[in-house]
Amino acid sequence: MTMSIRRMTLGAGYRYLMSSVARADEATKVAGLTGYYAATGTPPGWFLGAGLAGLAGGVGVETGSQVTEKQLWRMLGMLQDPVTGEQLGRPPTGKGMVFVDHLGRVRKAKSSVAGFDLTFSVPKSVSVAWALADEPTRARIHAAHQRALKAVIAYGESQVFATRTGHAGAITEDVRGVVATAFDHWDSRAGDPQLHTHVVVLNRVQPVVDGRWRTLDSKGLFRAAVGMSELYNGLLADELTRDLGWAWLPQERARSTEPKWEVDGVGKELRDEFAQRSSVIERAKDDLVDAFAASHGRQPSAREVIGLRQRATLATREAKQVKPLTELIRGWRVRGRDFVGDDQPAWVAALAGRHTQKLVTADDLRQGILADAATLVVAKVADKRATFTRANLLAEAHRQLHGVRFATQADRIAAAERTATLATDRAVMLTPAETLNVPEHLRRADGSSMLRARNSEVYATQELLDAEARLLAAGQATDGPTVSTRVTARLGHMIVPGKEHVLSAEQAHAVAAVVTSGRRLDVLVGAAGTGKSTTMAGVRAAWEAEHGPGSVVGLAPSAASAEVLADAVGVPTENTAKWISENQRSPEREQCLREYAARLSGAYPCVATRQLQQRAAAERAAYARWTLRPEQLVIIDEASMTATKDLDHITAVATRAGAKVLLVGDWAQLSPVQAGGAFKLLADDRGADVATLHDVRRFRHEWERDSTLQLRTGNPEAADTYLAHGRVESGTREDMLDLLFDAWLTDTRAGRQSLMIAADAQTVADLNARARAHNVAVGAVADGGVTTADGTTIAVGDVVVTRRNVRAYFTGRGWVKNGDDWIVRETRDDGSVRLSRPDNGGVAILPATYVAEHLELGYASTAHRAQGRTVDTAHAYVTPTTTREPLYVMATRGRESNRMYVNVDHDPDDGTRHNEPEHAEPDEVLRHAIATTGADSSATQTRRDEAAAARAPWRVDGHRAAGVATRYL
Description:
Layout: E1 2-9, H1 14-19, E2 46-48, H2 69-78, E3 98-100, E4 106-108, E5 113-121, H3 124-132, H4 135-159, E6 162-165, E7 171-174, E8 180-187, E9 193-202, H5 218-244, E10 248-253, E11 256-263, H6 268-273, H7 280-296, H8 302-319, H9 325-340, H10 344-349, H11 367-384, E12 388-389, H12 390-400, H13 409-425, E13 428-429, E14 434-437, E15 458-460, H14 462-476, H15 485-488, H16 505-516, E16 521-526, H17 532-547, E17 552-556, H18 559-569, E18 573-575, H19 576-583, H20 586-601, H21 607-625, E19 633-636, H22 644-657, E20 660-665, H23 678-686, E21 691-693, H24 702-712, H25 718-724, E22 728-731, H26 733-749, E23 754-758, H27 761-777, E24 786-787, E25 793-794, E26 799-802, E27 806-811, E28 814-816, E29 821-827, E30 833-836, E31 843-846, H28 848-854, E32 855-857, E33 860-862, H29 863-866, E34 871-878, H30 884-890, E35 894-903, H31 922-931, H32 939-950, H33 953-961, E36 965-968
Parallel strand pairs: 16-20, 16-21, 17-18, 17-19, 19-20, 22-35, 23-33, 23-34, 34-35
Antiparallel strand pairs: 1-5, 2-8, 3-4, 5-9, 6-7, 8-9, 10-11, 12-15, 13-15, 14-36, 24-25, 26-29, 26-32, 27-28, 29-30, 30-31
Helix pairs in contact: 3-4, 4-5, 5-12, 7-8, 8-26, 11-12, 11-13, 12-13, 14-22, 14-23, 16-17, 20-21, 24-25, 25-31, 26-27
């Protein structure tokens, strides 16, 4: 249920779009799709887009007309007019060219981008119903899908698609439309029903002003992609409800807080049956692996498996035949029989009529309703992002309207647009407003200036801006508690409690800077492996030497990281969310203590009085635990992962109490799930004065210490160093996961503490499945056990991780926390399990409800969960979508080595891919990751950056070249 985007370079994608198309002589002349049901393949592509009118010298191409092989080649292979062969705009560059890179290697030049594959894929429940329906119903479902995607393309032509002209691309012009072709496909790569359409948008458009063929503005397209996808979801649901009477239900996702909407009546088990991830190639590879084991008496190594997969790829490619839709349907109906019976068309027909509510028009939604929706939209977006654009608000507006069925396409679009506009009114625009003396030819039809990209303005909430201002003020204030020079003079000789060595000179200097600064809010920055934990322990020792035991409080973003902090620093710790929640009850506890005092003031000695005294003492202890007192120090570890609003609350409480807050972390590592960026804002505000640890101590090899610092600051040259030292493997996704797992297994067998890491949850799940399958095969894990909500089997011997805090489940080391690692010791018939910690430090018994929803395999880890951990070796999976911060975390966990396994054939939507993805060089993937930041920037810093960009020489020169007098407020 999505619209994905792929860039298509010159000549790429041409063959796969044409290879599955049925030959004309195989299809009958019956109108619609009926003629292609028996044909071997999919229907020919068809033209769409308002930009077709500009082709063939202005004669145009008819919308819906069939695209020929020659026409598609002209478009995707040459960027030419598909009818006349005339060059559209600049001739393409790069195809077939080579160059020598900075290391003396001969490389192929990148080809020009020929177009963008916008793949519209219906929800799995719709694909299932389409596959099992009778022929007329199947045609109606397909028609609804086509109407929805056409509406999205038309919307994009009016609101999204643009081109950049003028000096340095300073002018963003609307276009007359796009030139596109659409190809319908029936199934996923795994052979499951997956109705989807590849809409290939040519990378050439005509501006409204002069009509000269130019390049499409891809930044604007990608910025609006999520909103366009959400619009398609809503439009498709409306179309199917209006035509077939279907109702829709929100379904929880295993790895997302956002629900997905599926057709009411198409159950999860049936959807899962038709959502297999294994491909024909993988099944053929598995057969070859079995044959290898039978003939060699052992399992093949990871590199031997890669060779077997290559053989399977060739074998399946040679044998591959595009099947007629009728044959596919017969197979799907056999698979669906156990779920819905033999009369599957009747089952599909029974889905109709479930929607009983009135279809809504935009006018039915009064301003007050949309205003409430806009408030919710801003709250949800601002909770996740420190800054956002109208595109973010519009995407969330579409999500909030998913449960509403609209009467027309225009009604849904109008309601979402009005909601997004109201949402921007509830935010603060950080981009400077322009007062422009703009000539008429540089204004769009709606009056906006072409000198700013449509919907590119950046926003934040006033609440967040105020919180950042308070944090900056606290960081600049120097009237907080301190430690005397009597204590700091001994830091160079102080043995840190729990450590076997004294502080280094750098660590001692950092401790002294923090404890003597007098700042209410202080910052300690340390790169990965610089000894932040040891330094924090030194801070605690110095502070308690001055202010006594109990004067240091530890906090961290998660319960698991709080436990790590407690071990490192030796003070009671808590996660920030729990501490804030309990602290907010302080007024209630104060009132309760006053009531106890009043009742005890006149009480006489008796059993009831003693019980009252005990309750009052417990309340005083709770009050003391969850509040702060003068001269205390609050250490917040992993502060870069702590939300800005949480830092603001804790700092405000500390300021009122006369306490001090110390933020410890690394701005180069991962940001919080909620709106963040405050840690870097505070560090930058201090400039050179901020306490910083530079000396990397974690890594065995000197070159690796230097390279991690280069990676941390975004220097792409670090990629070459990792490659030169043999730390990088590259290949396809499956090959890389095989090598990664094999290397991890080798390390663990050798007694090393090793970690498999990936930035995305699906890859972590795949690595977990590999590890479990191996352990079952060798007898280390029982075959069988309990099943979780996502279908994973967990058995005795498995390594698992708990994913939810439950304080009621006690263990030998406290309670069950999100992120805790365990070993399964017993599975029970009722679905419950008995676990023990890997170090045998505690046992927990988890009920079936917890196991089903909140227990996962724990052999591999996400980058977020790995931050803060240190192991012997680490093995990281990297793709072209990986950004610097998770890469830095994944590349810095291991003391002895950190290896990267780079997927150079990544595809953003693997299920609807029909060709081999374009190959990238591993150094290109790593360089791009290192150069691309995904960190959340504070609203305050973003406002500064936006103001600076408005005054940038390229922009000013561009305005001058356009003859525009510009003044920024």
